[in-house]
Amino acid sequence: MSNISRRSFIKRTVAAGAASGVILSGVNKIAGASETGSNKVGTLIDLTKCDGCKGQKVPACVTACKSKNESRFPEPVENIQNYWPQKKYENWSDKRDLTKRLTPYNWTFVQNVKVDGKEVSVPRRCMHCDNPPCVNLCPFSAMEQTPEGTTQVNPNVCFGGAKCRDVCPWGIPARQAGVGLYLKVAPKLAGGGVMYKCDLCYDRIKNNQSPACVEACPKGAISYGEKVELRKVAYEKAKDINGYVYGDKENGGTSTFYISPVPFEKIHKELEKQKATQPNPEAPGFPTMPVEVGNFLDTANGMASAVLLAPVATAFAAGITAYKTMKGKGEE
Ligand code: SF4
Ligand code: SF4
Ligand code: SF4
Questions:
Q1: CATH code, domain carrying 48
Q2: Nearest-atom index, ligand 3, CA of 204
Q3: Alpha-carbon gap, residue 63 to 78, rounded angstroms
């Protein structure tokens, strides 16, 4: 058995036994999901077109995202408390205007770097992975993958344990404390809020509209459409400009294709340098992932997370069931 197939075997064995099927039970597909992949959508972000909305205080895609999602932003309770085992909580509610990083109040932002003398602006948000570890490893099944291949958080079920962020190679989901189910179930013992991230404007795409950021971009730098088509366009354009594609193979494949005139390894290096000097240590980079690794769950860390999460998931599943039963009996 090769290393990778041995890892896959162990992973599946753990999956079969873990937490009575609470975790690693496969991607949480919303009812009606197609297995054919023919209805999958995606986006193509062309870094040869994006100029970061130079001259504007806030890029148009960021403004559009904020105003489109404003009604879904968290409104936390006034006296947020610490919860075990953390000694602090994450509160972004007094920094709602931040636009240069991901927060529960800002689901996309633009990174600017200089590579080989070229200025490169890179819009960032959830990549919408094909086999999303955030979905697979959420102990509460609060992360879902839609039939169209997008991923989203269910804020009514999310406990804000942030496992989705831990297992996301880009650390995308952002946590806000003082909101969500944990306040009702175990405010001092579990969770820590609700996670927030881009859902590719799922309500809009279900309505045959493009995501708000796509529509708002004055340069046409973000395209939305059928994933199969976008992948084709991405490779054709990359060939034409002697450039690079990111997002097709990383983390086992995603629904977001970046095209760049400079290598992503170089962009990543510059972003890592920026992290050392700028107050956003969590800023996502463009890590290279060996193709044979494929997905976070196939890595040693992914396996460790899965094993560690099993008892936690079981305990909380029991807790949630008890909560629902009590609620049913009016013993809230
Ligand atoms: S993607 Fe478009 S709207 Fe966003 S920063 Fe780039 S040019 Fe501006
Ligand atoms: S980019 Fe991160 S948050 Fe988005 S689907 Fe992939 S693993 Fe999940
Ligand atoms: S797709 Fe929608 S939610 Fe995602 S970054 Fe664009 S506007 Fe925001």
A1: 3.30.70.20
A2: 2
A3: 27
Do 40 and 229 contact (CB within 8 A), yes or no? Answer: no
89: left (phi over 0), alpha (psi -120 to 50) or beta: beta
Which residues are within 8 A (CB) of 57 and not within 5 positions of it... i.e. 6 or more apart? none
pTM above 0.85, yes or no: no
Angle between helices 300-328 and 3-17 (to 10 degrees): 10
Give 124 Cα–ligand 2 centroid separation in angstroms: 12
Q: Which domain does 54 fall in, by range?
A: 3-328
Per the structure block, which two tokens stand in for 116? Answer: 């080989």
Q: pLDDT digits over 138-186, tens only? A: 988 999 999 999 999 999 999 998 999 999 999 999 999 999 988 888 7
Do residues 317 and 185 make contact, with C-beta atoms less than 8 angstroms apart?
no
Domain count, the chain: 1
Q: Cα of 65 to ligand 3 centre, how many Å?
A: 5
What is the 8-class DSSP label of residue 106?
B
User: Residue 291's closest CA among 263, 256, 251, 259?
Assistant: 251
* Cβ 211 under 6 angstroms from ligand 1: no
Q: Nearest Cα to 312, choosing from 213, 186, 208?
A: 186
Select from 128, 130, 250, 299 the residue to mutate for testing ligand 2; criterion: most ligand atoms less than 8 Å from CB: 128
CB burial of residue 129 (10 Å; 0-12, 13-18, 19+): buried
User: Which ligand 3 atom sits nearest the alpha carbon of residue 200?
Assistant: 1
